[in-house]
Amino acid sequence: MTMKEIVGIRHEDKYEMERRVAIVPQHISKLIDSELGFHVQHSQKRIFHDEAFEQAGATIVHSLEQASVVFGVKEMPISFFEEGKTYVFFSHVIKGQSYNMPMLKAMMEKKCQLIDYEKIENSEGKRLIFFGRFAGLAGMINSLWSLGQRLQMKGIETPFTDIRQAHTYQSLQEASEAVSKAGQLIAKNGLPHGVAPVIIGFTGYGNVSKGAQEIANLLPSIEITPEQLLHLDQKNAPRNLIYKVVFKEADISASIEPSSHFDLAHYYAHPEAYRNNFERFIPQMTILMNCMYWDKRYPRIVTKDFLAELFKNGTPKLEVIGDVTCDPDGSIECTHKGTEIEDPVFVYNPHKRSYEMGFEGEGVLVMAVDILPSELPRESSMAFSDALFRYVKAIAVADYQVPFEQLRLPDSIKNALILYQGKLTPNYQYLQKYL
Predict the structure, then answer these.
(1) Domain 132-375 homologous superfamily, CATH
(2) Does pLDDT of 296 surpass 90?
């Protein structure tokens, strides 16, 4: 190799408040060598300023035309792709998402390579590079803030009122301190009658759920089982405790056949044989944190029909749904869209089946920010870059002219290669039907 391979770092432009970056300056300074150089696209909003990248040895540019491999975070516009280049980002195509099929077609026409972070997995199928924990952290902070604002709108003051939206804090530590302070006031003075006990439910037990629970654990919280929740005497429960409940697949779905027991392997293989089993828990909760993967093969967790029944008999306990997974019309059916950081919440009216942005209105408040990790941009970028760092050089110096079978990449990266020379690779041939 006589010339350096140029790695491009793209400016994020899908969302106004997207401030993350895939590779941080401290890792660029370690990666630059005789084989590798970095061009970083100019950005006025990125959490790490241009000067930090220059100090790390990168060149600040307006165009990435000299880069053969480009790393980003979110989807890239169709006009951005160049012939034969390699792009690494969250493409959101693996479910056949219709809104990103034109992007995938454009990459195929340009004979590009597409590596999707979401599919970089180990041999057991566990994701290796992700923002999930930070989605959970920011989602829980935002949901506690949402609860405080919603109750204040109803004339009820609580320590949650002083918690702010995650992106307004300078760091995760500052946000955590604010939640801890609210927790200390709850432990000392309790919560008002009619609000206590606050019960937070978490669907799932992966990285997103663990991140959300990290924040909830800063409150004076105890964890109970789903069955204990059903038998909790809420009228006589302590007012200075927060109850946490983690729901697994067996709590959320049940076999359609009454005589059949829940079987996790069978559930994943034949989700059509299962129905919703979660609705019995929903009336007991104050906040529902939706933190688990879902696709349309599985039963929904919360339906519009159920919410209509729930609100038919007056205002229920449920105040906030923190839909961290943010699938429009998905597991939380009333999440009609992902919201933006600047306008993060809406109230869904189950009677009218209508939506109103903000904290006011009859119904349940939904927080469904689509890019939650960007509310903690510094910490989330650093953790993501830590995980990606070991693969960057292999991706950058690979020879993408050889036949796919001869392509030398780590297995976890090669298995995440959706397009090679503009064609769907063997693992992703199923996407053809969506094209």
Answers:
(1) NAD(P)-binding Rossmann-like Domain (3.40.50.720)
(2) no
Q: One-letter amino acid identity for 295?
A: D
Residue 209 CA to its chain's centroid (Å): 10
Q: Does domain 5-130+379-434 have CATH number 3.40.50.720?
A: yes
For the chain, residues classed under CATH 3.40.50.720 are 5-130+379-434, 132-375
| Adjacency order of strands within the sheet including 287-290 | 221-224, 242-247, 198-203, 287-290, 320-323, 364-367, 345-349, 354-357
Task: State the DSSP string of 94-140.
Answer: TT--GGGHHHHHHHHHTT-EEEEGGG-B-TTS-BSS--HHHHHHHHH
DSSP state of 282: G
The alpha-helical segments, DSSP class H, found in 234-355 are 249-252, 264-269, 304-312
Distance CA 113, CA 120 (A): 15
Cα–Cα distance for residue pair 384/133, rounded to 1 Å:
10
pLDDT at 1 over 90: no
pTM of the model: 0.91
Distance CA 367, CA 319 (A): 11
Q: What is the pLDDT of residue 2?
A: 46
Q: State the DSSP H helix or E strand holding residue 175, giving kind and residue range, or none if neither.
A: helix 172-189
Model confidence over 10-63: pLDDT tens digits? 999 999 999 999 999 999 999 998 889 999 999 999 999 999 999 999 999 999
